Amino acid sequence: MKNFLKAVVAVSCFLALTSGFVFASGSKAAKPSPDEAIAMLKAGNERFVTGKATQPHTDVARLALAGKEDQGDHAYATVITCSDSRVPVEILFDAGVMDLFIIRVAGNVLDVDEIGSVEYGLAHVNTPVFVVLGHTQCGAVTAVTKTVQGHGHPLERNIPPLVDNIIPAVKKAIADNPNAHGTDVIPYAIEENIWQGIEDLFMASPSSRDLVNAGKAKVVGAIYDVSNGEINWLPEAKTTEILKKVEANPKRAMEAMAK
Question: How many domains would you assign to the chain?
């Protein structure tokens, strides 16, 4: 049995690094490591962009399996992204049923509801990676950028508290890029909003910090280009920098479990 399991893991690692690690329908497979899961996501996007998508795990057998087994035995990534219809998560990662645990919200912001969903994805669905996926031409970031610059317009009453997490990101983008003005600020703000989301997660979620510190999970940022389908993966070192900053902040949440 030990030799069999070793063989399964070896094959899983190979597939993760080459063809996207497609789980065999009808059987459970060992979860990939954080780096293997990231490799699977990158490989899936490469297949999508190059027209070689395999559309895995979309058949009747996979649906039947979903009716019998827990997603925690299969999902390999938790992803938060914008609600924008131009960002079809499973499609752009060439993934299928029970592959990704997805959270969608305007501006891919991380507030209480979203952070709770991330904690569920990491601690209960046991995904080894969490991706904060921003995208080009983000309407939420664009609206906040215009408002911060004094060119906003009236919004429905529930939208401002939804996107207020983006304000610090826009202000930092403006401060760090003094030569950018007007709409030129938006691409910088889109990236800063990803880093802001990661910081918001770490500040509010001790369990997420613990999983990352223990090497059981990775948190990464990425930007999806809606014009060509490509994903630009942001430096993992920046996440490490943010985590260290948060760990030194006395205002960070300390109690991992609800009372």
Answer: 1
